[in-house]
Structures are given as C-alpha cells and as structure tokens.
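Hi support team,

I've been running sequence recovery on a batch of backbones for a student project. Most finish fine, but this one hangs at about 90% for roughly twenty minutes before it completes. I'm not sure whether the input is malformed or the queue is just slow. I've pasted the structure tokens below so you can try to reproduce it. Let me know if you need the job ID as well.

Thanks,
M.K.
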C-alpha cells in the first residue's frame, strides 16, 4: 500500500525532482512534489512524497527525519489526511475582532 509522507523545512531552492532523488535511495517513489506559493511562484518550503512500499517509507522517515539537508533540518513524517472545510481564519472574528452587522 502506498504511503504519503510530509517533508518540511526544505530549502526554498529544492525542486520536486531533487526531492524525488532524495527519497529514491529508499525505494520506489510514486510522486514527489514541492508546494509552490501561487502568489509568489516560490517554494513554500515543504512538500509531499508518495512511496509505493510501507517499509521503504518507514526507512525514509527513520533516516531523514531530523537530518541536515542543504543546511536545513528536515521534518519527515507520515502525512495526515486533508481535512475539509475552514477558510484558514482560525474561527475567530475576521474584521478586526469586532462583531458587526454588514
């Protein structure tokens, strides 16, 4: 069964291809993607890797989590499923903290 991994604290110059190469040493990589900010076109500093084998994914986590890569300490763990809903506002008041009728 495929395992999706979160990879955080990437250097902003790391490409999806480089991310795939980094994880390929542990086994078959189904996909690797560094997320790009749509406004700036720049890396967001994290990405996702999907590996086709659970054992290989666990080996990658054990080896790469906390390891230095290009001067940055990587965070590698199993990706959590996306949750639906929410607009990122944190659920509080969005207009300066005041409760107004508009």
């Amino acid at each position: 069964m495929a395992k999706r991994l979160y990879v955080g604290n990437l250097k902003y110059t790391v490409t999806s291809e480089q991310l795939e190469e980094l994880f390929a040493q542990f086994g078959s990589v189904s996909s690797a993607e560094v997320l790009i900010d749509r406004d700036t076109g720049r890396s967001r500093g994290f990405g996702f890797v999907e590996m086709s084998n659970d054992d290989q994914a666990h080996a990658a986590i054990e080896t790469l989590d906390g390891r230095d890569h290009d001067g940055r300490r990587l965070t590698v763990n199993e990706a959590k499923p996306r949750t639906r809903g929410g607009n990122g506002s944190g659920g509080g008041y969005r207009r300066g903290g005041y409760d107004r009728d508009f």
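--
Follow-up from support: It reproduced on our side and the slowdown came from queue contention, not your input. The beta strands are 3-8, 29-36, 43-51, 68-69, 72-73, 75-78. No action needed from you.
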